[in-house]
């Protein structure tokens, strides 16, 4: 009984952890201080992610992509 409960709890936990934060974000540009300043000033939702080549990338919320192009394109 306890094993079943623990197993079920573990499965639920792992399913919750599998949601990647970049799922709702799209790559925009490599990070610069000026770009981050403009995104913050425009109140745009973004995350910083390390790229394959070690550079820092700006990933923008897909729903805000048009706003990003207007303010920071």
TrEMBL record:
Endpoints of the signal sequence: 1-23
Alphabetic keyword roster: Signal
Superkingdom classification of source: Bacteria
Annotated protein name in UniProt: Lipoprotein
Organism: Virgibacillus kekensis
């Amino acid at each position: 009984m306890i094993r079943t409960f623990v197993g079920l709890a573990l499965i639920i936990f792992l399913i919750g952890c599998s949601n990647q934060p970049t799922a709702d974000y799209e790559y925009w540009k490599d990070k610069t201080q000026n770009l981050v300043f403009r995104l913050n000033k425009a109140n745009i939702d973004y995350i910083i992610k390390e790229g394959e080549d070690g550079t820092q990338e700006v990933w923008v919320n897909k729903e805000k992509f048009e706003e990003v192009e207007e303010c920071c394109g």
